[in-house]
Amino acid sequence: MEILGLLLVPIITAGICVFITKHSISKYVSIAGSFITLIYNLILNCAIYSNQTLEGFHGFFYLDSLSILSTQIVTLVGFAAALYSAGYMEAELREGEFPEKRLRWYYFLFHMFIFTMLLVCVTNNLGIMWVAIEATTLSTTFLVGFYNKKSHQEAAWKYIIICTVGITLALFGVILTFHSAKGALGEIGYALNWSNLLKVADGFEPHLMKLAFIFILVGYGTKAGLAPMHTWLPDAHSQAPSPISALFSGVLLNCSMYGIIRYHILTSKCVGPAYSGTLLMVFGLISVVVSIPFIIIQKDYKRLLAFSSIEHIGIIALGFGFGGMYGVYGAELHAFNHAIVKSLLFFCAGNLFLKYKTRDMGNIMGAMKTIPVTSVMLVIGVFAITGIPPFNIFTSEFMVLADGFSSGNLLSIVFSAILLVSIILIFIGFIYNMFKMIFGVPAVTAKQGEANKFTVAAMSFLLFFILVVSLYIPPLLSKILRNIYDIVRNV
Amino acid sequence: MAHQIVINSKTIDILAILMLMSTIMLVGMSRLKNCIWAYAFRSFILAWVSGLIAYFSGIHHIYITTGISLVLKVIIIPGFLFYIINKVKIKNEVESFISYTLSLLISCGIILIAYYSTQSILKFENVFMRHCLPVSLAITLVGFFVMITRKKAITQILGLLAMEDGLFFAALSTSYGMPLIVELGIFFDILVGVIIMGIYVYRIKETFDTIDTDFLRELRE
């Protein structure tokens, strides 16, 4: 029952928002809705902390540490994005980019998007998880194409076609999983419930389960942005409004990764962790390596951030692939860190776009003088995302690397070495591209100052979490991360 | 009883071959309207198969999915696609990156691959579905092939629908379909997905004055 509440709040918020045409009211409804979701999730977090798992509706909902971390990321970034939307959309509205009445659809789809992502994380039924992941695509297509211009329509079309094909392949994986479990399960009723499947996973038909995992990895991997299925990602991220890009990058990729991990656990129990682990490692490394040249030669700052997301989802996959204590702990910590840092960066990118009306990094000079607050945040964000020591991403990347090097498996060591070199190259590309834009003498005399106070509030909110996790990992988070290791290792 | 199962599985085999043929028609036909008719025909056969399976397996919830797929896939979705192509006034030709002859040849290759790759799995299957799994895999892969080689946005939607049909058939023949709530969710997703894609076909036509997706090339590195 408690879990149902978490899903109802975003639906109700969406339902209210669709009837409010005045942006001055709907923005507060949207912020309030996402704030209640955030608080509600914190309460659930405490329940998980003491109880380990929660079930609801005859096992239809299932919440353990793995899912609570994902919902935590959804609600945290969701609240920040709602706060940021209020400021960003206000500014866009004043520029006359779209009529005010279209905004209610924006808020409606925004909260439906949050709802579908929460559903992915809390459902126990693997079929419903598939339905929910497909629903994330459907609810966001209009958000990608929100401005309705040529390039936005192209991005939206690519997004829905590539993702739907990918997800359709994943459906084949779901069917094969169901089929391979048939012998072990017996009765058919709740046969697709993950927690039930896990109990009998060692009795699955191994050939089918191996085949199923490949389909799942390719299918959900498309949505997670793993290379070489990532081609929709830079287009959709760069064309969507900035708050939506932040949600895509920080949360959506993570939710699809969550789906892959659920199957990774099942497959590991069925055929041993080496099979799916190696596949995750290979796709993870490809993603990291593919992103390097695009980050270095990039001209568009939002595409730069999008390719960086591909890199980081690759690192998360590598961490799970290595599979040791530090690998899994580091990978999930990395998912959390990446979500908050990348959202902050997309918010900065949004503010830059509002100020300069261009996404071309060559046309922006001396942002530090023109929009100082955003630029300081941007510098912190760039340092954090590239893994500079005091910041949080350094910790998680270090853990993943340490696990790879200490695993004693030759493949893992080679992969970690390549990852280390890639991280350095990406650091150079990032600093070179971003700092050209931030420092220097302003070429055009744009008006000084920030867009408005909502955007600054959203960025400060995320910055607070980045600094906290940089200094130390709160015990609540640490306990959940350790539980996740137990779940993945199936102890 | 055994006799009945043999007849039953023969009927299903014939229907499976009909479905496969209507998918090949999607590859070989040049008129868009005929392609949509082929889709409606395949969906009808699929509903027939699912009704048969419901009858012989005695699982009641398959009747519900049969009914829904009859209404949704035979009437609503083809109707919507006809509405869209009338609205954007598309001429009949289906343009492809590959010639029709070569496409047909490749489809034959795909069917061979589908049979070959499912050999090892089929060893422990029941008599019911000796042809069903390879055929459903073939339909899915041919749909995928159509999606990546055709230029028109509508044909891409039809390819996607062929993929979904193939998977629906696979689920039905291997495990008597998914649990009901999952099937309902999948139907909902298909319907909403097709409607959204249809809206985008319309919008792309409005702005680009074509639904040839080859013209969507602004976003490149």
From TrEMBL, chain A:
Residues annotated as domain NADH-Ubiquinone oxidoreductase (complex I) chain 5 N-terminal: 61-92
A cellular-component GO term for this protein: plasma membrane
The annotated topology with respect to the bilayer is: Multi-pass membrane protein
Q: Looking at the record's lineage, which domain of life comes first?
A: Bacteria
Q: Name one Pfam family in it.
A: Proton_antipo_N
One example of the protein's molecular function in GO is:
oxidoreductase activity
Its keywords, alphabetically, are: Cell membrane, Membrane, Oxidoreductase, Transmembrane, Transmembrane helix
User: Which intervals of the chain form a coiled coil?
Assistant: none
The keyword Cytoplasm is annotated on this UniProt entry: no
Which residue intervals define the domain NADH:quinone oxidoreductase/Mrp antiporter transmembrane in the entry?
124-417
Q: Where in the cell is it found?
A: Cell membrane; Membrane
According to the record, the segments passing through the membrane are 6-21, 28-50, 62-84, 105-122, 128-147, 159-178, 211-233, 245-265, 277-297, 304-329, 335-354, 366-388, 408-433, 454-473
Gene Ontology biological process: ATP synthesis coupled electron transport
Q: What is its main location?
A: membrane
Q: What is this protein called?
A: Hydrogenase-4 component F
Native source organism of the sequence = Candidatus Jettenia ecosi
UniProtKB/TrEMBL annotation, chain B:
Main localization is membrane
Cellular-component GO terms for this entry: plasma membrane
Organism, as annotated: Candidatus Jettenia ecosi
Q: Where in the cell is it found?
A: Cell membrane
How this chain sits in the membrane, per its record, is: Multi-pass membrane protein
> Domain of life of the organism in this record?
Bacteria
For this protein, the parts annotated as crossing the membrane are 12-29, 36-56, 62-85, 97-116, 128-148, 157-178, 184-202
Kindly give the Gene3D superfamilies that the UniProt entry links to this protein. 1.10.287.3510
The protein here is known as: Hydrogenase-4 membrane subunit HyfE
Q: Which UniProt keywords apply?
A: Cell membrane, Membrane, Transmembrane, Transmembrane helix
